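Could someone model DAU with this protein?
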Amino acid sequence: MTILVTGGAGFIGANFVLDWLAQSSEPVINLDKLTYAGNLETLASLQGDVRHVFVQGDIGDGVQVSGLLEKHQPRAVINFAAESHVDRSIHSPGDFIQTNIVGTFGLLESVRAYWGGLAPEAKAAFRLLHVSTDEVYGSLGSGDAAFSETHRYEPNSPYSASKAASDHLVRAYHHTYGLPVLTTNCSNNYGPYHFPEKLIPLMIVNALAGKPLPVYGDGMQVRDWLYVKDHCSAIRQVLQAGRLGEVYNVGGWNEKPNIEIVKTVCALLDELRPKADGSFYSTQISYVKDRPGHDRRYAIDASKIERELGWRPAETFESGIRKTVQWYLANPDWMANVQSGAYRDWVLTQYVAT
Ligand code: NAD
Ligand code: DAU
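Reply:
Sure, complex below.
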């Protein structure tokens, strides 16, 4: 048996591939376009591992995706591929529409054709798992109940609107064609191999470089943080036992205002890598102009996945953020190569299969 992962050179997809192959002998076909967010260096430990086949390509390329499906006959497709950064979607929404909406549509068409041609047993066992976000639900007020799976969709950014559209397409392919889909809507992830345009890795690299730590607006926006390996275990669990056509919200039960996150990162760095001059990293905090349309609060009610599938996060925020800061301190080369752009050349010629 084999699975096909899309976007497996990005932050969550790569963590998922590494986790999967750490506990399973089932091969992974990894299809990734290698946009700026795709980093093969993250997968360096898999070089030479025959269980991992990397293919550079676009989820929307029907010819390539259909060829891969026919060649490798996966029992499941897990779709991580997306443009994922809200600020980029505000500056330049076109790529988000193209990959998250048009690309997902193309992937659905390829998968539908492949699935339709499978023998009955393989057809019944097949799954398409679509990885989505809590941002599709919009923004909560401070006293509102956390997002459940039946919360109305109210996306506020081009990113979240494009993810919402992809969720609707996935849902429609189940209802119209019977495609065996599962959707997960997850809160903010953090952990190793996170691209330093996102809050937590940006704060770590800027702090260490002595640069300002830019906090948008008043810093009181709330996010619900989940350690990335817990997201990976939730996806494995949904793939294995999720009910067809269902949506599962995934979250960490860890609501925190941004400024608290930044101060926690600073305090951990003060402990683990104290500054030579004895000053505290928090002195680098700098409040800057807010993100346009900035959602105030996200919070996930993850009781359905716990009740139905027995999943709960293993990490607390305290344990996860400590591991994360320790990982960045122990892996300065990974971060330096991302910052210099050298990661884009990483073993490309040896590593990319056809
Ligand atoms: P990321 O930006 O780090 O990685 C995305 C990956 O997709 C990259 O490797 C990129 O090269 C690849 N990609 C982009 N366009 C592609 C295309 N057209 N065809 C094939 N590959 C393409 O994103 P991430 O943070 O790892 O997020 C993965 C998924 O999880 C996304 O769908 C995102 O919406 C969702 N998600 C992310 C978070 C989070 O906190 N990061 C939370 C919930 C859900
Ligand atoms: O909720 C899930 C989403 O989490 C995912 O769907 C997205 O792909 C992922 O990027 C993330 O979106 P956010 O916008 O919440 O993440 P980001 O790390 O960009 O920002 C987290 C919070 O920190 C947000 O309120 C904006 C704020 N922020 C961010 C940056 C980069 C700052 O205050 N300063 C910054 O420099």
